[in-house]
Specification:
4% strand; 6 helices; two-stranded antiparallel sheet; 2 strands; mainly alpha; single chain
């Protein structure tokens, strides 16, 4: 067998889609339902400074809308995963080398961000420093580095500008405690 005979078979195998997997679809639906139900629970726990009058929107409104929508979509995904035949996954690429490590690293970075953000503020050298802007900028930069962004100037500008936008809109204009 010559090299020319082997190469097309290798290239064809590399471009095949991922195999169908009913258990994967069911697990995804169940995990999505668990996360969205947890989010719904957390949305009901948002403290209110004052109750909204009839016809007004309070701080729980949009989180509740998003949470209920997520629960409904998760239930539909789970129901479809259980009742439909295995979906074709020819359009999906196979797992790439390093993909699982990136997903795990993303979850660890997000977990570290949540842990640091929960501090609220710290006192350093007699000054109160808000943790959110620093943690959010580091989160953005870390995720961009993890997924291959290497230009330092745009990395810094993007991380700082997105963090500043979120901080100004939510922290200052909407007065949502970050």
């Amino acid at each position: 067998m010559s090299h020319a005979d082997v190469t097309p078979a290798i290239e064809q195998d590399a471009h095949q889609g991922a195999p169908p997997s009913r258990p994967l679809e069911i697990v995804f639906g169940a995990v999505a339902l668990a996360f969205s139900a947890g989010y719904l629970f957390l949305a009901t726990q948002i403290p209110l400074r004052r109750e909204a009058l009839p016809g007004q929107i309070d701080a729980r409104f949009w989180p509740m809308v998003l949470a209920v929508t997520a629960v409904v979509v998760s239930l539909v995904i789970l129901a479809l995963a259980i009742t439909r035949p295995d979906p074709g996954r020819e359009d999906l690429d196979r797992i790439q080398p390093g993909g699982v490590v990136r997903v795990i690293a993303t979850l660890l970075i997000a977990g570290a961000f949540i842990a640091v953000w929960s501090l609220g503020s710290v006192i350093l050298f007699g000054y109160r420093i808000e943790v959110f802007p620093i943690a959010a900028a580091v989160l953005m930069a870390a995720l961009m580095l993890l997924y291959g962004h290497r230009r330092w100037l745009s990395l810094i500008i993007y991380s700082v500008s997105v963090t500043a936008f979120v901080y100004v809109v939510f922290g200052m204009l909407l007065r949502i405690p970050l």
